Automatic annotation (TrEMBL):
PROSITE patterns: CNMP_BINDING_3, HTH_CRP_2. This is CRP-like cAMP-binding protein. PANTHER family: CRP FAMILY TRANSCRIPTIONAL REGULATORY PROTEIN, DNA-BINDING TRANSCRIPTIONAL DUAL REGULATOR CRP. It comes from the Bacteria. SMART domains: cNMP, HTH_CRP. CDD domains: CAP_ED (cd00038), HTH_CRP (cd00092). GO terms for molecular function: DNA binding; DNA-binding transcription factor activity. It comes from Anaerospora hongkongensis.
Length: 220
């Protein structure tokens, strides 16, 4: 039942009869990946669709000079295809289900409207990719870092007496890779905010004293 619920909690498979999910998806192979472990490489698992049962996963490409470019970040319940030239790396411990394309096709035959939902999910993923490209093209590094911090706090933050506390779960190098800048730039940015009294830092936990004011500036 837990594995059926995993799929039904995803926007793609929500409201699909549990029996159909059990027949086609619950017996698929799955694997747990440690934080920073590579989940897939270009050309691997072409016959599978990846379903992220838990965790967060960064999808990226590598330029010939070695520079990494983040394409999208997958969250729990997201799906991704192996038919790309991308790499996937766990931002935290992840559990990935490898759904054979043939099994997915059989499910679509039984649930035709699933194909429309898939188009919507892929559209959202493409929108996310364009947002990342737009940030790199039109926003400077400080703006990108501010937007990253504000969005992470809004999605994962917890209200405390001192402000909104958010566990970034990433070190400065990982944030730099995600944003597209150097580790030194990330360090200088967070240290600058702390000196201004806007945030308080304790390892990977950041407390934003006035999230509304910070967000109004970061997302303007």
């Amino acid at each position: 039942m837990r594995r059926i619920a995993e799929f039904q909690d995803s926007p793609l498979f929500a409201e699909i009869d549990g029996t159909k999910i059990e027949n086609h998806l619950t017996n698929c192979s799955r694997k747990v990946f440690r934080k920073r472990e590579t989940v897939f490489r270009p050309g691997e698992h072409r016959q599978f669709i990846y379903f992220l049962a838990r965790g967060r996963l960064r999808v990226y490409v590598i330029h010939p000079d070695g520079q990494e470019f983040t394409v999208t970040v997958l969250e729990q319940g997201d799906v991704f295809s192996g038919h790309t030239r991308t790499f996937g790396k766990a931002l935290e411990e992840c559990e990935v289900v490898f759904v054979p394309i043939q099994s997915f096709r059989f499910l679509v035959l039984e649930v035709p409207h699933l194909s429309f939902r898939l188009a919507g999910v892929l559209g959202d993923s493409l929108k996310n990719t364009f947002n990342i490209i737009e940030k790199l093209a039109f926003k400077d590094v400080n703006e990108r870092l501010s937007q990253f911090l504000a969005e992470t706090a809004e999605q994962q933050g917890t209200q405390t007496a001192a402000g909104v506390s958010v566990n970034l779960g990433l070190n400065y190098q990982e944030i730099a890779t995600l944003i597209g800048c150097s580790r030194q730039t990330v360090s200088a940015y967070f240290n600058g905010l702390q000196k201004q009294g806007i945030i308080q830092i304790d390892k990977k936990i950041v407390v934003i004293h006035d999230l509304n004011a910070f967000t109004a500036t970061a997302l303007k």
